Amino acid sequence: MEKRKIKNTTNLIASMIKYNFRIIFAGRFIWFLLAALAFYIFIAIMGVINGATPDEEFVYGILLFPAILLIFYPMTFGIQNDVDAGILEILFGIPDYRYKVWLVRLVLVFVLIALILYGFSLLSYVFLAPINRVEMTGQIMFPVLFLGSMAFMFSTIIKNGNGTAVVMVILGVLALFLQNVTERTMWNIFLNPFNVPRNMSEVVWEGIALKNRIFLTTGAVVFILYGLFNLQKREKFI
């Protein structure tokens, strides 16, 4: 009896995860995964051909933008996919909607992205450099968490996937444009913790990197809470 109960619970959880992924990604995630993998392989090959040293700094750089590509679709189009699937009205009828549905979905998406990035890190370990796969995955997840949460927040404000995508692209270009100003500061969203500036001590750089990670984590939490708060305003979505 106990084994059957555990099996039923496991099957229920697995079905819930599959269902949520089907709604979130709308059957298109495989294309983003393939694009991210192709992008990763292309950057890695070009970097090696151009004489880049395959170390932790290099691996972080080639993994960052494929990671952003992976998180882009589910966070920008998640709300619109709910609307298109006709499920948003049903979800608003669930008590504590924000905690029981979308918060679970956010966790599922970030966990899935982390697992995929670990796979990419493993490829880097095998073909490029003997990196710490867990540390590399964890470090990349900080900007992914920040940008993904920001996209989720804007999707609850704009309520349109294409509109959210445009806003995120504009903000991304702006962040890249300002990178020369923020490059060695805690405010750099794309800060590479493995890239220690030549004229700066490693201890000082580690302090800046730590503050940067705290900034990204705090920002992500604020974005998620604001997005969940917006989802309580039923009349704006139905």
What does this entry look like structurally?
The protein is an all-alpha fold and 238 residues long. The chain has a domain at 68-118 and 133-236. It has 10 helices and no strands. It is globular, with a radius of gyration of 19 Å. The model has no long low-confidence stretch (mean pLDDT 82).
Average of pLDDT: 82
Quote the distance from N terminus to C terminus: 44 Å
> Structural class per helix/strand content?
mainly alpha
> Strand fraction band?
under 5%
State the helicity in percent bands: over 70%
Order of helices and strands: HHHHHHHHHH
Rg for CA atoms: 19 Å
List the helices and strands and how they pair.
Elements (H helix, E strand, L loop, with lengths): L1 H24 L3 H21 L6 H21 L1 H7 L3 H4 L5 H31 L5 H26 L2 H17 L1 H4 L19 H29 L8
Helix pairs in contact: 2-3, 3-6, 3-7, 6-7, 7-8, 7-10
Keywords: Membrane, Transmembrane, Transmembrane helix
Protein name: ABC-2 type transport system permease protein
